[in-house]
Design goal:
- The chain is an alpha+beta fold.
- It has 5 helices and 9 strands; from the N terminus they run αβαββαβββαββαβ.
- The chain has helices spanning 4-14, 25-29, 48-57, 88-98, 112-121, and strands at residues 23-24, 35-37, 43-45, 67-68, 70-77, 80-85, 103-104, 107-111, 126-130.
- The strands form 3 sheets. A 5-stranded mixed beta sheet has the order 7-8-6-5-9. Strands 1-4 form a two-stranded antiparallel ribbon.
- A hairpin with a 5-residue loop joins β2 and β3.
- The longest helix is centred in the N-terminal third of the chain and has 11 residues, at 4-14.
- The chain is globular, with a radius of gyration of 15 Å.
- It holds the Pfam family DUF61.
Amino acid sequence: MMSERALAKMIEAMNKHMPARRKTLKEMLNEDEPSIKARDGNEYIIEKDELKFISEYVDELDWDKFNIPIILEMNDLHGETVVFIRDKLHQEFMRKAFGFDRYVRDVMMIYLYEMRKVRRALRTASQVVFKVSFR
C-alpha cells in the first residue's frame, strides 16, 4: 500500500500543469495570443473563442477579477469522484453558462458526467486539478 506521503507527491506531480500565475479574463481578451505559463514551465495557449464564450456570461465589470483558467477540482466524496468549483465568480459563470446549481458548504459541486460538458466547451480555458484528502 502506498504511503500518504508518496501519494501526496504523486498528486503534486500530476498538478504541475497548473498555472504559475493566473491571468484575468480582461488581460487575456486583450492579448493577441492568450497563453498561461504553467508550473512545469510549459506555455499553454487559451483559445480566444473560449474567452469570448466566458465573457458572454460574466459581467464586464468583473472581467478584471475573473481568473483564467477555471479550476475544476477533482475530489473523492464518500467514495464517489466529484468536481468542486471554489471560486465565487467561476461558480456564477458555471450557473449561468451551464445551469449548475449544486453546493456543498458554499462550494459548487458537479459530477464527472457534467464536467464533460464543461471541458468540451472550455477545453483550454479550464484545468483539472487533483486533490486527495487524508481524513
